[in-house]
């Protein structure tokens, strides 16, 4: 039986290899039970251009009930990362879901980023 974490790591390797081959900016998403994290990473030198998470004060203020591990919080993180990407003059990114399934909070973050101007 292969542990869950190893399965996720194996899935994310394939995605990251393809993105590296395309030389595209990468919108990397990570989720934990309590928080969501998103980063836009440059293809040239793997530096972080913009980042957003549910730990940031600006995101916490816009939450209605203060809970950070739900779809609503993920959508706010998606909106914030899209706004920061626009400031950094990045419009087209490759979506790196880090091996997580594309549903729930990961999907909400992606849709919010698309609605706010990022193109995948």
Brief write-up:
By secondary structure, the protein is of the alpha+beta class. It has helices at residues 4-22, 57-62, 71-87, 105-115, and strands at residues 26-31, 36-41, 48-53, 94-96.
N- to C-terminal distance: 34 Å
Work out the number of β strands.
4
Write down the overall geometry.
globular
Give the biggest beta sheet: 4 strands, mixed
Strand order of the largest sheet: 3-2-1-4
Summed up, the helix count is: 4
Estimated radius of gyration = 14 Å
Class derived from helix and strand content: alpha+beta
Mean pLDDT: 94
Assembly type of the shown chains?
A: single chain
How much of the residues is beta strand, in percent? Answer: 15-25%
Helix content: 40-55%
Order of helices and strands: HEEEHHEH
Uncertain parts: none
Would you mind describing this structure in some detail?
There is one protein chain. The chain is an alpha+beta fold and 120 residues long. It has 4 helices and 4 strands. It has helices at residues 4-22, 57-62, 71-87, 105-115; strands spanning 26-31, 36-41, 48-53, 94-96. It has a 4-stranded mixed β-sheet with strand order 3-2-1-4. α3 (71-87) runs parallel beside α4.
List the topology elements.
Elements: H1 4-22, E1 26-31, E2 36-41, E3 48-53, H2 57-62, H3 71-87, E4 94-96, H4 105-115
Helix pairs in contact: 3-4
Give structural attributes.
120 residues; alpha+beta; 4-stranded mixed beta sheet
